[in-house]
Design a protein that fits this description.
This protein is of the alpha/beta class. The chain has a single domain, classed as Rossmann fold. It has a 7-stranded mixed beta sheet, sandwiched between helices. Strand 4, helix 4 and strand 5 form a beta-alpha-beta unit. Helix 1 runs parallel beside helix 2 and helix 1 crosses helix 8. The chain starts with 5 loop residues before the first helix and ends with a strand.
């Protein structure tokens, strides 16, 4: 799903877009999963030193296997931070799963070097039932995430609100109706083709109206 799923691919595309123009010498992915977002950012910012943190021991093992040159650590970002700082800190589809999101954002901001940038990607708007089932503690209200990032000492300088109408509401409503079936598990040829067709349709979504939000903040 992280490699071939249409949303994961668009997450990587939009993360590259919102970090374009930056020249980070180091990148940290908070909640790096198996490492596909870090791989994508490394291609967009060649030469940057890569690091990732994950709460899941299995994900840490996968990321270390896929990114042998990166520093991958096990970390609960709501409770702790790394002693180092990085020029670019990103976190996609993570913060909505954390009960104390303000503590997590404070730690994320603390791991950003002075003058560096933090990018948070998450969902806003009405939470669907399947999103609660996969561990969302919340979907953010308009302006809520920006306020919490500001409270962590970040100055918002770029925003993408993406997804209307094909991702949200249409695709999310469909996933709610079918109980999120079809987006998990192994991806054979048929599933890969369907995912590519959905990815292509999602290229027609608005990048200024939508429930999938990317906020970039500068370290004050």
């Amino acid at each position: 799903m992280r490699r071939y799923g249409p949303m994961a691919r668009h997450t990587r595309r939009l993360m590259r877009a919102i970090t374009s123009g930056l020249a980070p010498k180091s990148i940290l992915d908070v909640g790096c999963g198996e490492g596909s977002l870090l791989v994508s950012l490394a291609q967009a910012h060649p030469g940057a030193a890569l690091a990732g943190v994950e709460i899941s021991e299995n994900a840490v093992a996968l990321a270390r296997r896929g990114l042998p040159g990166a520093e991958i650590s096990q970390l609960d970002v709501a409770a702790a931070r790394l002693p180092k700082t990085y020029d670019l800190v990103v976190s996609a589809d993570v913060i909505e799963h954390i009960a104390d999101d303000q503590a997590a954002l404070n730690n994320i901001a603390a791991m950003c070097a002075p003058g560096g940038a933090v990018v948070i990607a998450t969902l806003q708007g009405r939470m669907r039932r399947f999103e609660a089932d996969i561990g969302h503690m919340r979907n953010y209200k308009k302006g809520e995430l920006a306020a919490k990032m500001a409270a962590a000492g970040l100055i918002i300088d770029k925003k993408i609100e993406w997804g209307f109408p094909f991702y949200s509401p249409l695709y999310r409503n469909l996933l709610e109706a079918i109980g999120n079936q079809g987006t998990m598990g192994a991806f054979g040829p048929g599933k890969k083709l369907l995912s590519h067709l959905i990815y292509t349709a999602f290229l027609l979504n608005s990048a200024s109206v939508g429930d999938y939000i990317f906020l970039r903040g500068r370290k004050a």
